[in-house]
Amino acid sequence: MSDFEQLTQALARNLRHWRGDRGFTLDALAARAGVSRGMIIQIEQARTNPSVGTTVKLADALGVSITTLLDRDRTPRVHVVLPGQGVRMWATGAGSGASMLLGDDRRGPVEMWSYRLAPGEGRDSDPHPAGTFEMLHVTAGELTLLVGDERYAVPAGGAVSFEADTRHAYRNDGGEPVEMTLAVSIPPVGSAATGRESQ
After folding, report:
1. Helices (H) and strands (E) in the chain — how many of each?
2. Chain segment 145-175, per-residue pLDDT in tens
Protein backbone atom coordinates (compact mmCIF):
# COMPACT_ATOMS: atom_id res chain seq x y z
CA MET A 1 0.00 0.00 0.00
CA SER A 2 1.40 3.44 -0.96
CA ASP A 3 1.86 6.29 1.53
CA PHE A 4 -1.04 8.06 -0.17
CA GLU A 5 -3.32 5.02 0.31
CA GLN A 6 -2.20 4.66 3.92
CA LEU A 7 -3.07 8.31 4.61
CA THR A 8 -6.49 7.88 2.97
CA GLN A 9 -7.16 4.80 5.12
CA ALA A 10 -5.90 6.54 8.28
CA LEU A 11 -8.11 9.57 7.60
CA ALA A 12 -11.16 7.33 7.07
CA ARG A 13 -10.52 5.37 10.27
CA ASN A 14 -9.70 8.43 12.40
CA LEU A 15 -12.62 10.50 11.12
CA ARG A 16 -15.04 7.69 12.00
CA HIS A 17 -13.41 7.33 15.43
CA TRP A 18 -13.50 11.02 16.34
CA ARG A 19 -17.01 11.56 14.99
CA GLY A 20 -18.18 8.69 17.19
CA ASP A 21 -16.13 9.94 20.14
CA ARG A 22 -17.77 13.38 19.88
CA GLY A 23 -21.21 11.86 19.41
CA PHE A 24 -21.77 13.68 16.11
CA THR A 25 -24.14 12.30 13.50
CA LEU A 26 -23.14 12.72 9.86
CA ASP A 27 -25.57 15.64 9.59
CA ALA A 28 -24.27 17.30 12.76
CA LEU A 29 -20.65 17.09 11.62
CA ALA A 30 -21.60 18.33 8.15
CA ALA A 31 -23.33 21.36 9.68
CA ARG A 32 -20.45 22.15 12.07
CA ALA A 33 -17.76 21.76 9.41
CA GLY A 34 -19.53 23.24 6.40
CA VAL A 35 -18.76 20.03 4.49
CA SER A 36 -21.43 18.03 2.69
CA ARG A 37 -22.77 14.83 4.26
CA GLY A 38 -21.90 12.98 1.05
CA MET A 39 -18.27 14.12 1.22
CA ILE A 40 -17.97 12.92 4.82
CA ILE A 41 -19.37 9.53 3.84
CA GLN A 42 -16.86 9.24 0.97
CA ILE A 43 -13.97 10.17 3.29
CA GLU A 44 -15.07 7.71 5.98
CA GLN A 45 -15.24 4.96 3.35
CA ALA A 46 -11.75 5.90 2.02
CA ARG A 47 -13.22 6.57 -1.43
CA THR A 48 -11.79 10.08 -1.77
CA ASN A 49 -8.81 12.16 -0.73
CA PRO A 50 -10.22 15.53 0.43
CA SER A 51 -8.53 18.88 -0.07
CA VAL A 52 -6.46 20.43 2.71
CA GLY A 53 -9.26 22.94 3.30
CA THR A 54 -11.84 20.19 3.79
CA THR A 55 -9.55 18.25 6.12
CA VAL A 56 -8.94 21.39 8.18
CA LYS A 57 -12.67 22.10 8.42
CA LEU A 58 -13.33 18.58 9.68
CA ALA A 59 -10.48 18.75 12.21
CA ASP A 60 -11.73 22.12 13.44
CA ALA A 61 -15.30 20.88 13.79
CA LEU A 62 -14.08 17.84 15.76
CA GLY A 63 -11.67 19.90 17.88
CA VAL A 64 -8.63 17.83 16.93
CA SER A 65 -5.44 18.61 15.05
CA ILE A 66 -5.02 17.67 11.41
CA THR A 67 -2.18 15.41 12.49
CA THR A 68 -4.60 13.44 14.64
CA LEU A 69 -6.87 12.86 11.64
CA LEU A 70 -3.95 11.76 9.46
CA ASP A 71 -1.86 9.92 12.05
CA ARG A 72 -1.16 6.26 11.32
CA ASP A 73 1.14 5.47 14.24
CA ARG A 74 0.96 7.70 17.31
CA THR A 75 3.81 7.56 19.79
CA PRO A 76 2.38 8.34 23.22
CA ARG A 77 5.31 10.07 24.95
CA VAL A 78 7.96 10.96 22.38
CA HIS A 79 7.32 11.52 18.70
CA VAL A 80 10.38 12.30 16.58
CA VAL A 81 9.80 13.61 13.05
CA LEU A 82 12.95 13.38 10.95
CA PRO A 83 13.65 15.76 8.05
CA GLY A 84 11.32 15.02 5.15
CA GLN A 85 8.91 12.94 7.26
CA GLY A 86 6.24 15.60 7.80
CA VAL A 87 2.90 15.18 6.03
CA ARG A 88 3.01 17.32 2.88
CA MET A 89 -0.28 19.22 2.91
CA TRP A 90 0.09 21.38 -0.20
CA ALA A 91 2.68 22.48 -2.75
CA THR A 92 2.97 24.68 -5.83
CA GLY A 93 5.01 24.32 -8.98
CA ALA A 94 7.11 27.33 -7.96
CA GLY A 95 8.36 25.59 -4.83
CA SER A 96 5.99 26.81 -2.11
CA GLY A 97 4.49 24.30 0.27
CA ALA A 98 3.61 23.34 3.81
CA SER A 99 4.12 20.19 5.84
CA MET A 100 2.38 19.20 9.05
CA LEU A 101 5.19 18.22 11.38
CA LEU A 102 3.48 17.46 14.68
CA GLY A 103 0.10 17.63 16.34
CA ASP A 104 -1.31 16.77 19.74
CA ASP A 105 -4.77 16.91 21.31
CA ARG A 106 -4.16 16.13 24.96
CA ARG A 107 -4.54 19.74 26.14
CA GLY A 108 -6.48 21.10 23.19
CA PRO A 109 -5.28 20.71 19.60
CA VAL A 110 -1.78 22.04 18.90
CA GLU A 111 -0.16 21.81 15.47
CA MET A 112 3.35 22.54 14.18
CA TRP A 113 3.88 23.32 10.50
CA SER A 114 6.86 23.95 8.24
CA TYR A 115 6.23 26.52 5.49
CA ARG A 116 8.15 27.60 2.41
CA LEU A 117 6.91 30.46 0.23
CA ALA A 118 8.53 31.17 -3.12
CA PRO A 119 8.93 34.82 -4.18
CA GLY A 120 5.59 36.32 -5.17
CA GLU A 121 3.54 33.50 -3.61
CA GLY A 122 1.38 33.28 -0.50
CA ARG A 123 -1.30 31.35 1.34
CA ASP A 124 -4.67 32.57 2.66
CA SER A 125 -6.34 31.19 5.78
CA ASP A 126 -9.96 31.49 6.82
CA PRO A 127 -10.71 32.62 10.39
CA HIS A 128 -10.19 29.95 13.02
CA PRO A 129 -12.45 29.58 16.08
CA ALA A 130 -12.35 32.26 18.74
CA GLY A 131 -9.42 31.54 21.05
CA THR A 132 -7.15 30.10 18.32
CA PHE A 133 -3.61 31.42 18.62
CA GLU A 134 -0.75 31.23 16.09
CA MET A 135 2.98 31.75 16.59
CA LEU A 136 5.54 31.68 13.81
CA HIS A 137 9.29 32.01 13.46
CA VAL A 138 10.81 33.13 10.16
CA THR A 139 14.14 31.45 9.41
CA ALA A 140 14.77 32.80 5.87
CA GLY A 141 13.53 35.71 3.79
CA GLU A 142 10.98 38.28 4.95
CA LEU A 143 7.38 37.29 5.58
CA THR A 144 4.49 39.66 4.99
CA LEU A 145 1.74 38.68 7.42
CA LEU A 146 -1.77 40.00 6.90
CA VAL A 147 -4.18 39.81 9.85
CA GLY A 148 -7.55 41.34 9.05
CA ASP A 149 -6.72 44.68 7.41
CA GLU A 150 -3.29 45.01 9.03
CA ARG A 151 0.04 44.14 7.37
CA TYR A 152 3.20 43.15 9.26
CA ALA A 153 6.76 42.56 8.01
CA VAL A 154 8.61 39.75 9.82
CA PRO A 155 12.28 39.39 8.81
CA ALA A 156 14.46 36.29 9.07
CA GLY A 157 15.18 35.58 12.73
CA GLY A 158 11.97 37.34 13.78
CA ALA A 159 8.85 35.85 15.31
CA VAL A 160 5.23 36.91 15.67
CA SER A 161 2.13 35.74 17.53
CA PHE A 162 -1.48 36.65 16.84
CA GLU A 163 -5.07 35.71 17.50
CA ALA A 164 -6.17 33.81 14.40
CA ASP A 165 -9.95 34.19 14.63
CA THR A 166 -9.94 36.62 11.72
CA ARG A 167 -8.97 36.16 8.09
CA HIS A 168 -5.18 36.06 7.71
CA ALA A 169 -2.58 35.37 5.05
CA TYR A 170 1.12 34.67 4.65
CA ARG A 171 2.88 36.38 1.71
CA ASN A 172 6.35 36.54 0.21
CA ASP A 173 6.67 39.96 -1.41
CA GLY A 174 10.48 39.72 -1.57
CA GLY A 175 12.96 38.20 -3.98
CA GLU A 176 14.13 35.20 -1.95
CA PRO A 177 12.22 32.24 -0.49
CA VAL A 178 10.57 32.61 2.91
CA GLU A 179 10.94 29.69 5.30
CA MET A 180 9.14 29.56 8.63
CA THR A 181 7.85 27.30 11.38
CA LEU A 182 4.25 27.86 12.44
CA ALA A 183 2.51 26.68 15.63
CA VAL A 184 -1.28 26.74 16.00
CA SER A 185 -3.12 26.33 19.32
CA ILE A 186 -6.84 25.59 18.94
CA PRO A 187 -9.45 25.61 21.73
CA PRO A 188 -10.72 22.11 22.59
CA VAL A 189 -14.26 21.08 21.68
CA GLY A 190 -16.63 21.99 24.50
CA SER A 191 -14.65 25.04 25.63
CA ALA A 192 -16.35 28.42 25.76
CA ALA A 193 -14.29 29.53 22.78
CA THR A 194 -15.18 26.85 20.24
CA GLY A 195 -16.54 27.74 16.85
CA ARG A 196 -13.66 27.50 14.36
CA GLU A 197 -15.04 26.16 11.11
CA SER A 198 -12.04 26.36 8.72
CA GLN A 199 -8.23 26.70 8.33
Report:
1. 5, 10
2. 999 999 999 999 999 999 999 999 999 999 9
Provide, for the chain, the percentages of residues in helix, strand and coil under a 3-state DSSP scheme, each rounded to the nearest 5.
25, 30, 40
Residue 168: predicted pLDDT: 95
Bridge partners (DSSP) of residue 58 are: none
| Residue type at 132 in one-letter notation | T
What's the N-to-C CA distance of the chain in angstroms? 29
Laid out side by side, the sheet with 178-185 consists of 87-91, 97-104, 110-117, 178-185, 133-140, 159-163
Using a cut of 0.85, tell me whether the model's pTM lies above it. no
What is the pLDDT confidence band of residue 190, given thresholds at 50, 70 and 90? low
* CA dist 129 → 6, 63, 173 (Å): 30, 10, 28
Which residues neighbour 125 within 8 Å (Cβ) at sequence distance 6 or greater? Answer: 164, 167, 168, 169, 170, 199
36 in Cβ contact with 67 (< 8 Å): no
Dist. CA 64–CA 194, nearest whole Å:
12
Q: Residue 152, Cβ neighbours under 10 Å: how many?
A: 12
Yes or no: say if 28 and 58 are a contact pair by the CB < 8 Å rule: no
pLDDT in tens, 34-82: 999 999 999 999 888 888 888 888 988 888 888 788 775 555 567 778 8
